[in-house]
Specification:
Elements lengths: L5 E4 L8 H5 L1 H4 L1 H8 L18 H10 L4 H21 L15 E4 L17 H4 L1 H28 L4 H21 L14
Antiparallel strand pairs: 1-2
């Protein structure tokens, strides 16, 4: 099994709802407000960490070499919620993002054995090592937005989402999930690939 977060998103390709696709950003506004309410945990930092609990993990790994299970559960739930919202905003699904887990958008985490498989010192340097990944991720995000714009036009005009564009957008989401798993959630010491594959 991989030491990275695996992303599974089931895309609605055909019989798309043209009306909701047209106003998707406005329809997602309530759930975006709900998601943004978690950023209070970030101590008013810009949305870089977006509500993930990072400091407790760093301290626990550094001093006890333990990853608190309740923090892992919270971070996993928050990342899955974020992925459901992204899948909805990027038109991958017409299903309104649930605040509870569902099978359309699923993340599979590597086994960390309570933190015993993780280096206690790596959290101190992972953010620095991840800077090139974040910069490349911004380019990938622009790429995904461009593909989504083309897909949006196709959904509005023809009622289906082009499969090849959906696959590429999912790869970008998966890239960001691997990056979050390494640099913010700290669930792996394995450096993520620069590739979308």
């Amino acid at each position: 099994m991989s030491n990275q977060i695996l992303t599974e998103i089931h895309v609605d390709l055909d019989n798309r709802d043209k009306n909701t696709a047209l106003f998707r950003v406005f329809l997602a506004f309530p759930v975006l407000i709900f998601l943004s309410s978690f950023s209070e945990f970030a101590d008013n930092l810009p949305g870089v960490i977006g509500g993930f609990l990072v400091l407790p993990v760093v301290l626990s790994l550094l001093f006890r070499n333990v990853y608190p299970s309740y923090v892992l559960a919270f971070n996993k739930a928050l990342l899955e919620l974020s992925n459901r919202i992204n899948a909805y905003l990027l038109l991958l699904t017409d299903e309104y993002p649930s605040i509870e887990a569902n099978q359309k958008v699923r993340l599979i985490y590597p086994e960390i054995e309570g933190g015993k498989k993780l280096s206690p010192w790596m959290p101190l340097v992972k953010w620095f090592l991840a800077i090139p990944l974040f910069l490349l991720g911004l380019i990938y995000a622009i790429y995904a937005l461009a593909l989504t714009l083309v897909a949006w036009i196709t959904v509005i005009s023809q009622g289906h989402y082009p499969e090849e564009k959906a696959e590429e957008v999912i790869k970008v989401i998966a890239y960001w999930n691997r990056l979050y798993g390494y640099a913010l959630l700290l669930i792996t010491d394995e450096y993520p690939s620069f590739s979308l594959n």
